[in-house]
Design goal:
- With 470 residues, the chain is of the alpha/beta class.
- The protein has three domains: 9-76, no CATH class; 79-365, Alpha-Beta Barrel (TIM Barrel); 403-464.
- Helices cover 49% and strands 9% of the residues.
- It is built from 20 helices and nine strands.
- Strand 7, helix 14 (323-332) and strand 8 (336-338) form a beta-alpha-beta unit.
- Helix 4 runs antiparallel to helix 12 (249-267).
- The chain starts with 8 loop residues before the first helix and ends in a 7-residue tail after the last helix.
- The structure holds S-adenosylmethionine (SAM).
- S-adenosylmethionine (SAM) binds next to loops.
- S-adenosylmethionine is lined by residues 102-103, 140, 142-143, 176-178, 198-199, 201, 217, 243, 277, 279-280, 282, 285, 320, 359-360.
Length: 470
């Protein structure tokens, strides 16, 4: 029996409930009365259950799909405005003791050079990232208790936050490392991490165990309950995700939403973000070996449905996706993207993109300046804001701000100010020109006059050289 309050992974995301959901969805995929009811509920922007959302996923009536897309676009506009938060991954170490069959870092792969950044090298990478204009990082590492123990990760975080280079510092470090203990999560919280991100990879337990045949990651329950331990350790911003392509997308979608329901039911706050990575070609990996790959249309539909099912949760798309795909899904609900990414250890210090040790092929290879320019050309505001987390607005405090609709008076000015900093300090001439015009126009979209005037004043001060308003 599905009980979202259960702390047991197999119970809260039960195989039986997912199969039953898929059966229910299949039986109702042409039930227009029910579909209309579900879409009407989604319009209230309070979310959908995994069962309701799965019916919409199964539905293939073109007019209904168009309605879903239009609604996703509307909800995105209402909750996120036109802001897109920017970040970059930073790979610390590709040492790994796991046997994940889809990941080139797996223990048995002897082709890739194993590398772990020293703290001096971390500093060099961070300076290279700061020189691009990044303020928010997601650190990545393989799982290896000897080479990458928690102390190493903590030292890296400390180093990253300590580097004051030219115009400021990295202001938020999100962490994507393997499932760990409550004690270690507590240490990460004390080190002031932003979001703890862990992809489930797949919610299908049997497949999970085959895809992770060896190493600590083989333990499905330990992996699936990681977010509960993270929250017990005090981390209240957690990021979910599945690696699309490993299992049936309908199965993963239901599992993902059940996981979100579980976090909300047990901890009072749902996931801060959901990532939607798709499997990519990589060294020693043949993506064709995974026969559950999804095409761009299904990918877009999944993004739109996540947007209307969990309206307050940020959605992340990485440079695994091409410019064309990113363009489509940003409109449908994605709120955070990476730019100028290198997915190899030490990659940011290299002039030329190193391909031999990349974790996966990067589809969007443009520079951060090009990505920022492109976003603004489409009318979006690239945001380098990290204010919520630094002001302690995490977990349910962030969610209530979001739900109160006050985000326009809070996030909009912060986005404009951090964009202004970017334009002053890092952007090309052309990007600056478009950006200045965008800021002037967007200033008028701040609803409260008082907030608008403060923002205008801060923008002038940034022009004069002052940075990092808090
Ligand atoms: N080692 C950590 C763990 O086990 O969760 C996380 C870090 S790993 C560098 C980040 C993510 O990359 C993995 O969770 C996986 O979903 C993704 N990944 C691995 N191989 C991939 C591939 N071939 N294509 C796309 N994404 C991949």
């Amino acid at each position: 029996m599905y009980d979202p309050k259960s702390l047991k992974a197999e119970e809260f995301i039960s195989h039986e409930e997912i199969l039953d959901t898929l059966d229910y969805a299949e039986r109702n995929k042409s039930n227009t009365e029910l579909i209309d009811q579900i879409i009407a509920k989604a319009r209230l922007a309070k979310g959908l259950t995994h069962r309701e959302a799965s019916v919409l996923l199964a539905c293939d009536i073109p007019e209904k799909i168009q309605e879903i897309y239009d609604l996703a676009e509307q909800i995105k506009k209402d909750f996120y405005g036109s802001r897109i938060v920017m970040f970059a991954p930073l790979y610390l170490s590709n040492y790994c003791v796991n046997g994940c069959t889809y990941c080139p870092y797996h223990l048995k792969n002897k082709h890739i050079a194993r590398k772990k950044l020293t703290l001096d090298e971390v500093e060099k990478e961070v300076i290279a990232l700061q020189d691009m204009g990044h303020k928010r990082l997601a650190i990545e590492a393989g799982e290896d208790p000897v080479n990458n123990p928690i102390e190493y990760i903590l030292d890296c975080i400390k180093t990253i936050y300590s580097i004051k280079h030219k115009n400021g510092a990295i202001r938020r470090v999100n962490i994507n490392i393997a499932a760990t203990t409550v004690e270690n999560y507590r240490k990460l919280k004390e080190a002031e991490i932003g979001t703890y991100i862990l992809f489930q990879e797949t919610y299908h337990k049997e497949s999970y165990e085959k895809l992770h045949p060896t190493g600590p990651k083989h333990n499905y329950a330990y992996h699936t309950e990681a977010m509960d331990r993270a929250m017990e350790g005090g981390i209240d911003d957690v990021g979910l995700g599945v690696l699309f392509g490993l299992e049936l997308y309908q199965y993963e979608f239901a599992g993902l939403l059940m996981h979100a329901e579980h976090l909300e039911a047990v901890h009072g706050v749902g996931p801060h973000t959901i990532s939607v990575p798709r499997i990519k070609r990589a060294d020693d990996i043949d993506p064709n070996a995974f026969d559950n790959g999804i095409d761009d249309e299904i990918f877009a539909k999944l993004c739109a449905l996540i947007r209307i099912s969990v309206p307050y949760t940020g959605m992340i798309v990485s440079t695994r996706e091409s410019q064309k795909v990113r363009e489509k899904v940003i409109r449908l609900g994605v709120s955070q993207i990476s730019g100028g990414s290198r997915t190899s250890v030490g990659g940011y210090q290299e002039e030329i993109r190193p391909t031999d040790t990349e974790q996966f092929d990067v589809s969007d290879q443009r520079s951060l300046d090009e990505v920022v320019h492109w976003l603004m050309d489409m009318g979006y505001i690239p945001s380098f804001c990290t204010a919520c987390y630094r002001e302690g607005r995490t977990g349910d405090r962030f969610m209530s701000l979001c739900k109160s609709g006050q985000i326009q008076n809070c996030c909009q000015p912060n986005a404009l100010m951090t964009l202004k900093e970017y334009l002053m300090d890092y952007a090309s001439e052309d990007t600056t020109k478009i950006g200045e015009a965008l800021i002037a126009a967007e200033l008028n979209h701040i609803p409260k006059e008082k907030v608008r005037l403060i923002c205008k004043d801060h923008l002038e001060k940034i022009e004069q050289g002052i940075r990092d308003f808090r």
